[in-house]
Amino acid sequence: SEKDGWCEALKGHDLVAIVCESDSGLADAERLGVLLNTTYHNGVDEARRNKYLMVERVKEAGLAVVKQRLCKTLEEACDFAKELGVDSGGDSDVCVVVKPIRGVGSEDVTLCNDINSVKSAFQQIHGATVFGSPREKHEVVLVQEFAIGQEFAIDVVSKNGEHKVAAVWIYDKRPANGASFVYYATKLYDGENMDELCNYVRKTLDALDIKWGITHNEIILTADGPRLVEVNCRQHNMDFIPLTMECIGYNIFDMLLGAYLGGEDDPFVYPMETEPERLNWDILPSNPPKRMNGAMVHLVNYANGTLTRLNEDALREIQRMPSVMNMEVYPPFLQMGNTISPTIDIRTDAGWVQMVNPNPNEFQKDYDRIIELMPTLFEANDDL
Fold first, then answer.
1. Are strands 150-159 and 213-222 parallel, antiparallel or unpaired?
2. How many angstroms separate the first and last alpha carbons of the chain?
3. Rounded to an integer, what distance in angstroms lies between the CA atom of residue 71 and that of residue 75?
4. Is the pTM of this model over 0.85?
């Protein structure tokens, strides 16, 4: 079998751990960790990938979570939405979230404020292909209470059950192009709710029996306290390393090596000559310091059709901003004549901008201007 091939190829090597890069590899990473008997692994647990089981497990541990139901039929989804207070005409202030039990980057996650939108969201997911498993189809759809509040992402490294936070991010997600949750930015955070958020995440990781490795955790801070969106046993996608190096002084991968390889009592220790370059896990803070403002801005495209014009003046203005460290426009948005689509999730971003600035006012001014320029960046002829 394929797994036997892996075992044979790696025979004779001391395998410390397996690091998962993206959601599509989560199940295989867990199974391979057990199969290859790596020194550090968390075993196999479906609740770390299935968003419904995840919330149920955290609830069993005594933590506050959103109300939810796994729905096999459209009727079940509509009945539960009505139970939570959603009405047919959209006159109620109550919303529900309809989403797949597995997915990435807000893909097929819909905020619904009436029964018709619940029906549409359910039908879009039910029977569709499961992310990362092309032969699997979604036979059930998850309907959840909508947690009202600010969403955060907390990146964590765990060493034998000790969870140290690498970075806390605050999301700027807005409705755009017909989608409910479009990423505009992911900003570093060190505000007054830092301890509450980080402590809640540590408890969720304990509930899911995660003792080793990287996790990317999403939390909504409501008026009644934190509520879990999801735990992802993988790194935070996109290149956040330059931001954390500038704004915090270290990064999550150096922390991971410190967790796996750095302690005197650990079975694996770095080569002595690397001592000046490595992080000492024991002196790393539980929560990270923030010495500068930083953000990853997602370039949101509003144009649809054949690309006819790129606003080079606006892009040059962004490049010259004091807060801009680096930026990229993806190739499909640079070639005239290409067909482009409006941004509705991370996969349909037009590019990114990395921002760093010690001055919060200058940082915010530049950020607001980038958001203002986004609708002007691309022009297209809608051929349909």
1. antiparallel
2. 48
3. 8
4. yes
The Cα 8–Cα 29 span in angstroms is 17
* pLDDT tens column, 227-263: 999 999 998 877 899 999 999 999 999 999 999 987 7
Residue 144 has which token pair? 């959840």
